[in-house]
Amino acid sequence: MSVLNAALVGNPNCGKTALFNLLTGSRQKVANYAGVTVERKVGRLTTPKGLAVRLLDLPGAYSLVATSPDEAVTRDVCAGTYRGEPAPELLVCVVDATNLRLHLRFALEVRQMGRPMILVLNMIDAAKRQGIAIDVPRLEAEFGAPVVTAVGIRRDGGQEVLRALDLPPPPPPPAMPSGSDFHAEARRILADCVTRPSRLGMALEERLDRWFLHPVWGMVILFALMFVMFQAVFSWAQPVMDLLDAGTAALGQAVGTLLPDGALRSLIVDGVIAGAGSVVVFLPQILILFLWILALEESGYLPRAAFLLDRIMATAGLSGRSFIPLLSSFACAVPGIMATRTIQNPRDRMITILIAPLMTCSARLPVYTLLIAAFVPERRVGGLFNLHGLVLFALYMAGILSALVVARVLKNRDRQEEHPLLLELPAYRLPNPRDLALGLKQRAVIFLSRVGTIIVTVSVLLWALASFPAPPAGAAGPAIEWSLAGRIGHWMLYVMAPIGFNWQICVSLIPGLAAREVAVSALATVYSLGATDSDAANQLQPLLSAHWSLGTALSLLTWYIFAPQCFSTLAVIRRETGSWRMVGITAGYLFAMAYGAAFIVWRISLLLGWGGSP
Amino acid sequence: MRLNELKLGGSAIIDHVEDHTAGDPVAERLRALGFVPGEPIRIVAVGPIGADPIAVGIGFTRFALRRAEAARVLLRDAA
């Protein structure tokens, strides 16, 4: 049976994605267009008469004179020139019935492509509520293509579109002479077909924006929202994450008792189950963060937040859109980098991804607290502050400041034309639960299937490095010392000794690549504590203060501010940018900064006499 | 007068959008978004720091833009 290739096109904020979700339900596939990081959504549906339709949800565009990769994809797919995409046999052009002035201009531009098309007046219910009367038959005659109405957020709101798909494709619409003014034509058609009361519908927007965009109250509301969001990502997710952690540990143990002692058991328990566990443990944070972001985006608030924060982010050469991904990166860079999807400008998105790992994530905390407790004396400073707290604060600030510097340097490097803010502040809407649920599901699937596979593979690899070869019978010392990882750790000493590291640190850095906090338990293993995670830190603390110099500790802390000691972050960068080069650049510059900064800290420590054994 | 000089709450009519460079993509985009001659425009909000960016209402849509972008839009007095 033949399949009809159709594509949804329309302005951003025309309700296209809600309509797409309504028409295709959960039969969607999300991927990227070949060679670019633009998200490609395709769904399948069957019309009442049994016609199979493959529906492509093209990125929203304001104009086919493209200014972003999104718009270039839309332009090329509509024109049928995008490599690997069949030319659509039918364009379904969606316009917001309450904002026809802007959207009809784009519809006219699409009509100019000369492909069979239908025009969908979406959100017709809202238009009626605002008292907008549209003469549909007349519009159909003036526009020259079939016109149907739809309500993307109502369960039966897509019936007319489905019926229109059942009809034989309409002939290509008439084109205007080249060089015509689309605005003038849109204005002419609207004057003929639409009557609307004067700006009555804007009253709600006016009132809300008076608060949300207010220089003082707007900021208060924004920071309250961000505070709750940060709390949610940082602490509400924690119990669930602990539960998942305990769950994987219990599963590992349960499976462990079933298998005979040996390499196979270790592979399954320490490699595969622990690796999969380190993937699943991110899910609560990702889901909570994306629930917030999707709700803020759907409601129309996100562009307003970008408006309020634009000036602050401009000091780093970024726009307001980078704020939420960077804030989220304080909890974890993985959801933070996934959240950069809301940044349309590709250059801003790349820079945000590059600096996101510099935001101090929660996995660095166990390492920071261990070293601070072991080496920084508990003391009040100025009668008010605790020295431990001050050092921790300094570590966070060092990350933020270096991110600012990196962003500025990258910005100066690229002397392109200005990157405008210019964004639409769409009408406020209540987020639709179905659209939120579908959005969350897509994020979860992307993370588990495409990021997860890389993380599990690397975990197994790291497990193998730390387990083979096994120590000879009767050997003294921890097993890891005899393994490949142990040997690599000793070799690494040639490179790491100049920054004050000892071989124990080098060895623990290798399993620590799976996740930063693993370095703590790895250190415990190297120092033959064999302690469980929970009290490893307590037992390690006196040991470290006895064995390490202050300089070594400071150097390791500095290293941790910068070092990309986290394969999950690198895996998610690979997934989000589709490029190993980007992964290489990120890892390269972060390692270079880590090494450089730790080197300076170690040298200064030596000068101050902090480098000797305690 | 230019759009970046219009005060909060003020309104005017767009005269035209000028290119700052040859084939200025920002000006091109402004025109595509409806910043066309004869269109009434008003400032509905200004940013918290240095009153930049600005939010404008045009037709039935609102846009946020920086003052440097707004400087491309020439205005005439509201009739």
TrEMBL record, chain A:
<comment type="similarity">
    <text>Belongs to the TRAFAC class TrmE-Era-EngA-EngB-Septin-like GTPase superfamily. FeoB GTPase (TC 9.A.8) family.</text>
</comment>
<feature type="transmembrane region" description="Helical">
    <location>
        <begin position="351"/>
        <end position="375"/>
    </location>
</feature>
<dbReference type="InterPro" id="IPR003373">
    <property type="entry name" value="Fe2_transport_prot-B"/>
</dbReference>
<keyword id="KW-0406">Ion transport</keyword>
<feature type="transmembrane region" description="Helical">
    <location>
        <begin position="272"/>
        <end position="295"/>
    </location>
</feature>
<keyword id="KW-0408">Iron</keyword>
<dbReference type="GO" id="GO:0015093">
    <property type="term" value="F:ferrous iron transmembrane transporter activity"/>
</dbReference>
<protein>
    <recommendedName>
        <fullName>Ferrous iron transport protein B</fullName>
    </recommendedName>
</protein>
<keyword id="KW-0547">Nucleotide-binding</keyword>
<keyword id="KW-1003">Cell membrane</keyword>
<feature type="binding site">
    <location>
        <position position="24"/>
    </location>
    <ligand>
        <name>Mg(2+)</name>
    </ligand>
</feature>
<feature type="transmembrane region" description="Helical">
    <location>
        <begin position="444"/>
        <end position="468"/>
    </location>
</feature>
<keyword id="KW-0479">Metal-binding</keyword>
<keyword id="KW-0342">GTP-binding</keyword>
<dbReference type="Pfam" id="PF07670">
    <property type="entry name" value="Gate"/>
</dbReference>
<keyword id="KW-0460">Magnesium</keyword>
<feature type="binding site">
    <location>
        <begin position="10"/>
        <end position="17"/>
    </location>
    <ligand>
        <name>GTP 1</name>
    </ligand>
</feature>
<feature type="binding site">
    <location>
        <begin position="57"/>
        <end position="60"/>
    </location>
    <ligand>
        <name>GTP 1</name>
    </ligand>
</feature>
<keyword id="KW-0472">Membrane</keyword>
<feature type="transmembrane region" description="Helical">
    <location>
        <begin position="550"/>
        <end position="573"/>
    </location>
</feature>
<feature type="binding site">
    <location>
        <position position="25"/>
    </location>
    <ligand>
        <name>Mg(2+)</name>
    </ligand>
</feature>
<dbReference type="InterPro" id="IPR030389">
    <property type="entry name" value="G_FEOB_dom"/>
</dbReference>
Automatic annotation (TrEMBL), chain B:
<dbReference type="InterPro" id="IPR008988">
    <property type="entry name" value="Transcriptional_repressor_C"/>
</dbReference>
<dbReference type="GO" id="GO:0046914">
    <property type="term" value="F:transition metal ion binding"/>
</dbReference>
<feature type="domain" description="Ferrous iron transporter FeoA-like">
    <location>
        <begin position="1"/>
        <end position="77"/>
    </location>
</feature>
<keyword id="KW-0408">Iron</keyword>
<protein>
    <submittedName>
        <fullName>Ferrous iron transport protein A</fullName>
    </submittedName>
</protein>
<dbReference type="Pfam" id="PF04023">
    <property type="entry name" value="FeoA"/>
</dbReference>
<dbReference type="InterPro" id="IPR038157">
    <property type="entry name" value="FeoA_core_dom"/>
</dbReference>
<dbReference type="InterPro" id="IPR007167">
    <property type="entry name" value="Fe-transptr_FeoA-like"/>
</dbReference>
<dbReference type="InterPro" id="IPR052713">
    <property type="entry name" value="FeoA"/>
</dbReference>
